[in-house]
Amino acid sequence: MGSEFGTPGRRRVLFGRGSWPEASRIAEILRQETIGGALLLAGAVIAVVWANSPWSGAYESLRSFTVGPAAWHLDLSLATWAADGLLAIFFFVAGLELKREFVAGDLRDPRRAAVPVAAAFGGVIAPALIYLLVTAGADGAAKGWAIPSATDIAFALAVLAVIGRFLPAALRTFLLTLAVADDLIAITIIAVFYTEDLKVPALLGALVPLALFTLLVQRRVRSWWLLLPLAAVTWVLVHESGVHATVAGVLLGFAVPVLRSEKAGGPDAGPGLAEHFEHRFRPLSAGVAVPLFALLSAGVAFGGLAGLGTALSDPIALGIVAGLVLGKPLGIMAATWLVGRVGRARLDGGLAWVDVLGLSMLAGIGFTVSLLIGELAFGTGTPAEDHVKIGVLAGSLTASALAAVVLRARNRVYRRIHEEETADLDHDGIPDVYQTGDR
After folding, report:
1. Mean pLDDT over all residues of the chain?
2. From residue 222, how far is each of 153, 186, 257 by CA, in Å?
3. How does residue 3 score in pLDDT terms, banded at 50, 70 and 90?
4. Sequence-ordered strand ranges (E) for 262-399
């Protein structure tokens, strides 16, 4: 999805349009994520305003309110439930999308997957290196190296809905694919680098309900009263093991079959449970889980302009801002150019490298996973965590503004491409460009 090196007999291109079924599926996902992004922004704004209002004490009381059975070590604050529980739903949907892309989507073709996957790795490595460079010498700051590595697709799409309504389909799908690969890298980082006290018995125990869940979904069982308890037990045991509980969401998502028949071309080949669960859980993830996480995690007291200036002068906050604003575009652009150079590919007709720059800047919007990694790296309720929040907010807003300048300057070009991509002169419901294959 998003980029390709073409097919035999055609000149190799970057950011090819792809097929109509894939484009229409991606468009539907983007619509849902855009709505979710608006809700996420609303939750973040409410949290920041509330935390800096005369009622900030009520906000902190809400965040720290504890609920859950202590016998199972689940007497957690609402802020922790949001990070460990609600984001498990987010990562479950991410797991479904990841598997679908690798099994039935464009990522199954190494040629098409090369650019967005390489760009995702570049967009993780460069921000981490810049963060470590900026924070060199700051005691304990290195723990947050992964904070600026994540792209928040919902936040980015909400911004895109305002500044780039006519962005070509290929660029939109590239952004989504990059974010999907980014999620996989992020959850791997969380599992490997932010697990401090591993309890092997609990982790092994989680494999039992996970295996039963896998067996049932592979047999196409949809009964919630069977699947939900197994998913919950898996989550509890992963949480107890010391591995961040959101990892359970990804593992459960990976277990769900993508096709009705795993045999290519079989009589039952077609959309499987993954698509069914995605339709059910994506609205819950985008519309409830992520906005509530933003509400309970984004609130930070600035302490006025003086306090904001002090926070932004901290190496941790500076490293995050530099990683998001400079590292993301640098890593994504460099990786995209390198893969195109190796594959001797050119940009698809009508597009220019300035479009890739604008999209790379937009990918510098890090929010949900960046805040989560910040909590894991520095703990909750610490001055460092507050500086993480300020750095993430400042970096994301700066990246949004810079992306807006670049992408808005190309709006006339995007509008022309959009008209070509939506023209349906024969009124058969499929844009003509997907039938002729001509730009």
Report:
1. 86
2. 28, 29, 12
3. low
4. 346-347
Helix (H) or strand (E) holding 66: strand 66-67
Of 17-26, 108-117, 153-162, 240-249, which one has max mean pLDDT?
Answer: 240-249
What is the distance between the alpha carbons of residues 97 and 17, in angstroms, rounded to a whole number?
A: 20
Compute the distance between CA of residue 86 and CA of residue 296 in angstroms, rounded to an integer.
11
Token pair listed for 282 = 């994506």
Residue 81: domain span: 13-194+244-436
Any domain includes 229: no
Does residue 205 belong to any structural domain of this protein? no
Q: Tell me, yes or no, whether 203 lies in a domain.
A: no
Cα(352)–Cα(438) distance, rounded to whole angstroms?
18
In sign, the C-alpha dihedral spanning 311, 316, 319, 320 is negative
Query: Is pLDDT larger for residue 10 or for residue 84?
Result: 84
CA-to-CA distance for 46 and 100, rounded, in angstroms? 35
| Distances, alpha carbon 253 to alpha carbons 202, 215, 236, 290, in Å | 20, 13, 16, 17
415: domain CATH number is: 1.20.1530.10
How many structural domains comprise the chain? 1
Q: Is residue 200 in some structural domain?
A: no
What is the maximal distance between C-alpha atoms in the chain?
67
